[in-house]
Each structure stands twice: as structure tokens, then as C-alpha cells.
Specification:
alpha/beta, ten-stranded mixed beta sheet, 10 strands, about 40% helix, disordered N terminus
Length: about 350
């Protein structure tokens, strides 16, 4: 049941959309609550969690008057629920924060300073860590070392600079009125509704990209991991290349239009455990025109995962030493030799 709407207006709402994240959201809230001021609201929209999320969030709510908890009777899907969280917010700006990542102690004040300049959009950089936050995988997910301001006429530059990073919704701080007035429905189901809202047309004002990493991403914990192949081979490229008034060069800087056509990409996804015979039959067999292409894609889908993983790790350790996140994904894969041996032993 929805709670009554809060009429007080804030400068900023930190809007978290969650579902079944009781194991993680407490740590997220612990990083946020000490930074709240009278001008900042915290809103949690719960997409019908079936775990202990409601009880946990209500415990935080009892000691935080700025925390508003909205629990939906049923889950509307990631995009629809994120959009609903903006609608339910009472802030002039909305920070679309994730439910398992952390913000640094200075983050809220930095964002409040940024939105005081009346930008249409603020993009907050992040550091990437492993799933238990013990190891830094990437110090700056968005490759900026100084803040950047982009005018509406610099839309291509903004897309090329921040487009790849914006596959992560937690870095988005957007003027609420801008979100409300733009089209959302066409992007429901894409998993990246925020990118559709931001880039469907030129922003009315400037966008600020904050170079300092103020967010700590808990990498490898996304609930969509089983859909990796579909998302990164089809959903994400389809969205990126749908912005036809953004230059091809800017879109290509974010991703290829059809990355699944590259055997090396298929091999990497096989090595990570995200490409299989099922994926070949579901997504590729009807799209690859030539018999040779189909045979190669099939061969990769059937390749021993352990061998694919070892070869990919060797590549990351010698040729592409900058692929720290990719290397982490390979080591986390069920095909990593250590994991594979443990699983084989467990099955006995």
C-alpha cells in the first residue's frame, strides 16, 4: 500500500529503487543517512520485496524523518519503478541511487553544490570495487580527472564522454521537472530508462560531470547477471544506436551497433559464462547470414568454458592489462579453474 504523499519540497531527493536487497541496502543507507540535511530527502521505492527489506527500511525510517518509504503492491519492472521513484520524490533534483552501492562521506554536499548552479543534469563519478568492497577494480569508472561542463550544443561530446558510464544509473542526478516532462514509456523494458530520458533530445541547460568518484560501486552484484548476453549484446546497443541525431562517432565511442558479430566478443562472453548454446540458438542463429559465421558462433558456444576462461585470462594478463574489471569477471566466472574444480568436487 502506498504511503501518503509528502508535500514538503527539498532541494535534492536521493531516490532508491529496490527489490529483495535486505542483505545490502542497510549498508547503502548507513552511507547516506549521516549526510542528510534539512534540504535532502531520502526516498525508497520498494518493488514488492518478498524478503526482509520492508522491516529493515522501516527500522531506518523510525530514526530518520527525511526517509519516505513507498512500498508497491507489485513490481513494475526496473525502468517503470525508477520512473515512479522520481514521480514520488519531493526534490527539485533527483539522485537515482542504487540499492547496494555506497556514497562517500562528502558526496551529498558535493552534489548540493553542483545543483546550486541549476544544471539540467549532474553525473557523479564512481569507483568500482569487488562484491565485498575489499578491492578496487577501477579508481574512476568515468575517465575524467577534472570536472566537465557540457552545453546543449555539446551533446555529442557528453554522449561520448559519459555514455558508457551511464549504463550505471546510480551516477545520475537530474532535474525532476525535466524527467517528468520527457517521454519514459518508450524506454520501459530497456533497463536503461534514464539514458533514454537524458538523450532523447538535447538538454535544455548544461550538464556537469563530476570527476571525483563519490560513489563506490559493488561490482558483480547486479540482479540482471543471468541476462548478461541479451543486455550487452542487444538491449544496450539497440538503445545507444537509437539516438540517430547523435553522431555515429559519439555512439561508436560507447559501443558497437552489433557487438555480437565479433568472434572475440563471443569468446569473452563464453569465458565469463555468459554465452552458451542456448544463447546461440536464442539470439544468433537467425541473425548470422552466412554458414561460416554461424559455424564459428556455434563453435565458440560449445567451446569448453574452462579453456575459454584460461585463454581470456592470459590475454588480460599480457596484452590488455588495463582490463581489471574484465579480469575480475573472468576470475568470478564458474569457468575459472579454481571455481570449476570446487564445483566439480562439490558434485562429487
Amino acid at each position: 500500500m502506498l504511503e501518503e504523499s509528502c508535500e514538503r519540497m527539498y532541494e535534492l531527493t536521493i531516490a532508491i529503487t529496490t527489490r529483495n536487497r535486505a542483505a545490502f541496502i542497510g549498508q547503502t543507507l548507513d552511507s547516506i543517512l549521516p549526510q542528510l540535511t534539512d534540504s535532502v530527502q531520502l526516498l525508497i521505492l520498494d518493488g514488492a520485496s518478498t524478503d526482509a527489506t520492508p522491516e529493515l527500511v522501516r527500522a531506518y525510517q523510525r530514526r530518520c524523518p527525511q526517509l519516505r518509504y513507498v512500498r508497491l503492491a507489485r513490481n513494475g519492472g526496473l525502468d517503470r519503478d525508477f520512473s515512479r521513484s522520481v514521480e514520488e520524490s519531493s526534490g527539485r533534483y533527483c539522485w537515482l541511487m542504487t540499492d547496494d552501492d555506497l556514497i562517500r562521506p562528502e558526496a551529498v554536499q558535493a552534489v548540493l553544490r553542483a545543483i546550486s548552479a541549476n544544471h539540467s543534469l549532474v553525473i557523479v563519478n564512481a569507483e568500482v570495487r569487488n562484491s565485498d568492497l575489499s578491492k578496487v577494480l577501477c579508481a574512476r569508472r568515468m575517465a575524467l580527472h577534472e570536472d566537465g561542463v557540457f552545453t546543449p550544443q555539446q551533446r555529442d561530446q557528453l554522449f561520448a564522454t559519459a555514455g558508457d558510464y551511464l549504463s550505471f544509473i546510480g551516477g545520475v542526478v537530474i532535474r525532476r521537472s525535466l524527467w517528468i516532462e520527457r517521454h519514459k514509456e518508450p524506454y520501459f523494458g530497456s533497463l536503461f530508462v534514464h539514458v533514454g530520458v537524458i538523450f532523447q533530445a538535447a538538454l535544455p541547460g548544461t550538464a556537469l560531470a563530476i570527476a571525483e568518484p563519490l560513489i563506490v560501486i559493488r561490482f558483480g552484484n547486479a540482479m540482471w547477471r543471468p541476462q548478461d548476453f541479451e543486455i550487452w549484446m542487444f538491449k544496450w546497443p539497440r538503445l545507444v544506436w537509437s539516438f540517430e541525431d547523435i553522431s555515429e562517432a559519439a555512439r561508436a565511442a560507447v559501443c558497437r551497433p552489433e557487438p555480437w558479430r565479433r568472434p572475440s566478443t563471443l569468446w569473452l562472453f563464453r569465458a565469463k559464462g555468459s554465452y552458451s548454446l542456448y544463447d546461440y540458438r536464442t539470439w544468433l542463429v537467425g541473425r548470422l547470414a552466412s554458414r561460416t559465421q554461424r559455424a564459428l558462433a556455434l563453435l565458440i558456444a560449445c567451446a569448453p568454458g574452462v579453456i575459454a576462461n584460461l585463454a581470456a585470462l592470459l590475454y588480460c594478463s599480457t596484452v590488455r592489462r588495463d582490463m581489471s574489471i574484465g579480469r575480475f569477471e573472468l576470475i568470478s566466472s564458474r569457468f575459472f579453474i579454481g571455481n570449476w574444480l570446487r564445483n566439480a568436487h562439490a558434485k562429487g
